[in-house]
Structure prediction request, 213 residues.
Amino acid sequence: MELLINTYMTEIIAVSSFALFMAVLPGADFVMVTRTSIRNGRLAGLYTTLGVCLSICIHASYSIAGLAVIIANSAWLFTAIKYCGAAYLIYISWQLLTDRKLLTDDQDNKTANMSPLAALRLGLTCNLLNPKAPIFFLSIFTQLVSIDTPLIMQISYALIIMLTHLIWFSSVAVLLSHPSLLPRFNRHKQKIDKLAGLILMLLAIKLTLMNAS
Prediction:
């Protein structure tokens, strides 16, 4: 294994750097984890993160199997995924933007309940329906990874990508749900929901217009 690591060190560094950049770059996953951590608490944020990571494992699996190339080069399939992802983001953003439920003073300092399964499903669906994900993994496994790279190393790269996202989004969830910060966020829950809804709506529009020509 040490020999493999030394042999493919260049690829390891390239994949790790690209994975870190994609994890930190703000997007729908970041909005979901941020909003869930603030609105529903640390545990919900961590389960949303876990859902994102499970989706990454799915993307990595079909990329290693070569299906990402098919998705990226099949116009109708990519278009279907693109519009499904955009529709899902619009649905979530519309819920956030039109929620007129008022908080009482007692509720204002509490986090809303969300089951672990619901939070996990939220993160899984958000990332799984993101049409940028197949392109992201296609870029890694066709541009950064050699066709001769052993399967064990490709699986290792997938784990690096997953762990990078796990560490980053877990850190976001823990930070934003910290006891010293959460009360401040709680006072502006509705504003945060509206802002998250607006960002998701803009992302959905961007996805819809992506490669429209």
Residues 44-100+114-209 form one domain. The chain is about 80% helix and 0% strand. Residues 102-110 have pLDDT under 50 and may be disordered.
